[in-house]
Design brief:
The structure is a homodimer. Chain A is an alpha/beta fold. Chain A has 3 domains: about 150 residues, Nitrogenase molybdenum iron protein domain (Rossmann fold, 3-Layer(aba) Sandwich), CATH 3.40.50; about 200 residues, Rossmann fold; about 35 residues, no CATH class. Chain A has 16 helices and 14 strands. A 6-stranded parallel sheet of chain A has the order 1-11-10-9-12-13, with helices on both faces. The first copy, chain A, has a 5-stranded parallel sheet with strand order 6-5-4-7-8, with helices on both faces. In chain A, strand 9, helix 10 and strand 10 form a beta-alpha-beta unit. In chain A, helix 10 packs across helix 11. The longest helix of chain A has 19 residues. The first copy, chain A, is globular and about 85 Å long. In chain A, about 60% of the residues are buried. At the A-B interface, helix 5, strand 2, strand 3, helix 10 and strand 13 of A face helix 5, strand 2, strand 3, helix 10 and strand 13 of B.
Chain lengths: ~425, ~425
């Protein structure tokens, strides 16, 4: 864990800060040719290509008929998992659903001088949810990606997950996914985007995945909609020293244990506190099962920044635009107006990220790697689309015909002009 | 103009319909290497690369200092254009602004058993608007792309447009753009995405452009946000024969005159009416200044589909998911509930697309090429982003700690588990 003093410096030019901000840059070009090839084959050969790549990459032999997980298996998984986990997932499901219901979008109409103008809101018909498989298969990913679609009113939710474990299958059962296919990688994304004999074509694909999945989603953006471009995740903690260093250390580690590229950062005004957090973190890490991952993340990116006051802390936080921001100060609400860029803002000592990851209700799919400057948490708004509705009466038309003709002439679009003029002449 | 009979057929397998649906597929791979090269050079060399490519592609010699159009030039353009155009653009600006104000997004909070959860809504700080230049430079593009950003509260709106004409500059003046750069192509997109010595880095890039612009936007998606993946545009008219064939013909032509790839389609139950529209269109087209473009579009894609009833007409329309849908029937509102996929829905004989393109108020930047299945018209919602806000009291924490621990254990994330457990033990 590095300690970096930004007091009395032109902090925007701090090398460490710029290094952190750029860690999300990925060499896509390296992986692109193989992903393009996979997409092309799936588009042309459908299920045959998907089962081919599933054997090649996942080592699993499937036939088109065995790609889909039978509904009974979801139910079995639900019955099989520990009772406390089942109950916890059900509490989480319920809380996530209630929170997301507040995100519903409304149609509107305005009537004005002979025109009636509005927007209609329609849920997407069919969406695909990608859930990473194997060891890092997380039931919380299922809930967080499926529930907003459900609340939006999406009719059919298709989940794909390579080698899904019992927890993800149980979560699929709880959240009412329509179908589950045990496939993954770029081949699963391509299958969802184009549709195959066995897999229905979807309108949008959401959910996290490895570099192949990320590139496939980006390449297929336009054929389908996608959620966001996800990079390595991060936590940033603003601390005034009022919260126990060991609590802060575990919060930092709960990000670092995810992935070697994850970032764990703190900003504080208190130098002694900074050193205590660093010590606690280095001590606690030694006992953690995932310490190899956490250590790499902390060594490469882990940083505590020293600043002179809380306003500068917010400035630096806005520069980093973290996925998760914890404000561990005595009066965290007072800083809220100064925080412009963060995926999720956790306020106060008991609002630890883990609660938000699992159970509080707001979505844990958040913009990473600085993209909180322009991306939002996944939400119901991601699963609807709008259409404009325009009605013009004869009176409204007469009022607006002339200025429309003027602009059409200026743009040199004669047919546009004529489509108005002909209605005036008749 | 082709007439295609879908009555008593398995219409989804109709070849013409599938050909139309696929016309948006672009061979990106062909252009990608050159666009990548441009992006790379702009990222490394900044303004030097931009002026280099501007001379190479646009034949315009610029220095970093002359890339920006001085504010006086905008004002001069405003004073220079014809009075009726100026007044029309001002009416349009005002109507677009008023409509978009209804799209403002609201923050919300919910309080529940010791937790306070919500979302905050923040406008993007700085956005770039791309406006095509030269002959096809449209002032309406400026208004439609700038006003939603303005209503959202974006602080700085940077417009780029190669060889902008007086109308686009006047529209920039009317809509209150912050700065205008007379550059275009992939080099302008890259300049906005990364920032250069003279061009500030933006958070999002919107606006239409040629294939280089489209590919640059897609490649840089993630570095910045982008509006949508735009393909060739189209109009689809559902007609019951109650509207004058010549009116319909001009509406179809006003799409066809845009671009050789544009699509002009009609669906009707009335075979005689179909033939009259076809005749009118072919007759009218001969007098049009842009007839070469319109003819190519009509020959390649122009189609009138015959169906047995209005419900099937809506089904076919939903399959095509057109950018513009005109419902020219006696009672157009009665079909609205059956229309699921369309960018903008124009209802009734006086609601011609040209009015919507320029002056009614709803946005004319619409999803094209079938992407209305999942994309929305450009709106205020494109220029804001959200952050989740999560506060948990000690009581709330005590209630939710156990289920959080259960899920953390199931996911094998020990630091997540510990971050909760440590707060219970202290």
């Amino acid at each position: 864990m590095k300690v970096e003093d930004l007091r009395n410096t032109a902090w925007r030019f701090n090398e460490r800060l710029r290094y952190i901000a750029k860690r999300g840059e990925v060499l896509e070009e390296e992986y692109e040719p193989i992903v393009r090839e996979i997409i092309k084959r799936v588009k042309e050969e459908g299920d045959k290509a998907i089962t081919y790549y599933t054997e090649k990459f996942d080592g699993v032999k499937l036939t088109p008929d065995t790609m889909e997980v039978p509904y009974e298996e979801l139910e079995n998984a639900y019955n099989e998992i520990e009772e406390d986990v089942r109950s916890a997932l059900e509490i989480a499901y319920e809380r996530i659903r209630r929170f997301h219901e507040l995100q519903r979008e409304k149609a509107f109409f305005m009537e004005e001088s002979g025109t009636l103008l509005g927007m209609k809101v329609v849920p997407l018909e069919r969406v695909g949810v990608y859930v990473p498989g194997g060891k890092a298969a997380y039931p919380s990913t299922v809930l967080m990606n499926v529930v907003p679609a459900l609340v939006a009113g999406v009719e059919e939710i298709i989940m794909v997950s390579p080698k899904p474990n019992k927890y993800t299958l149980a979560a699929a059962f709880i959240s009412g996914v329509s179908r589950v296919y045990q496939i993954g990688g770029a081949q699963a994304i391509a299958g969802l985007a184009y549709g195959t004999e066995m897999i229905p074509k979807v309108d949008k694909i959401v959910g996290p995945g490895n570099i192949y999945v990320a590139i496939a989603k980006k390449l297929l953006f336009g054929v389908v909609d996608i959620d966001m471009i996800a990079g390595p995740s991060e936590i940033l903690i603003i601390s005034d020293g009022s919260c126990e260093p060991s609590w802060i250390a575990t919060d930092l580690l709960s990000q670092a244990e995810h992935d070697e590229m994850a970032g764990a950062f703190m900003i504080t005004t208190d130098e002694k506190h900074a050193l205590r957090v660093k010590e606690e973190l280095e001590r606690l890490m030694e006992d953690f099962p995932r310490k190899e991952i956490a250590k790499k993340s902390i060594e490469r990116f882990g940083t505590i920044f020293l600043v002179e006051d809380m306003f500068k802390a917010c400035e630096v936080a806005n520069y980093i635009a973290p996925e998760h921001l914890e404000v561990l100060t005595e009066d965290p609400f007072s800083l809220l107006p100064y925080i412009k860029h963060a995926g999720a803002i956790f306020l106060g000592r008991y609002s630890t990220e883990a609660l938000g990851d699992y159970i509080l209700g707001p979505n844990h799919t958040l913009p990473t790697g600085g993209t909180a400057r322009f991306f939002s948490p996944l939400g119901v708004y991601d699963f609807i689309k709008r259409s404009s509705v325009l009605f013009v009466s004869k009176e409204g038309f007469e009022r607006l015909a002339e200025p429309t003709e003027s602009i059409a002439k200026a743009e040199g679009l004669f047919a546009h002009f004529t489509s108005v003029r002909i209605r005036r002449e008749t």
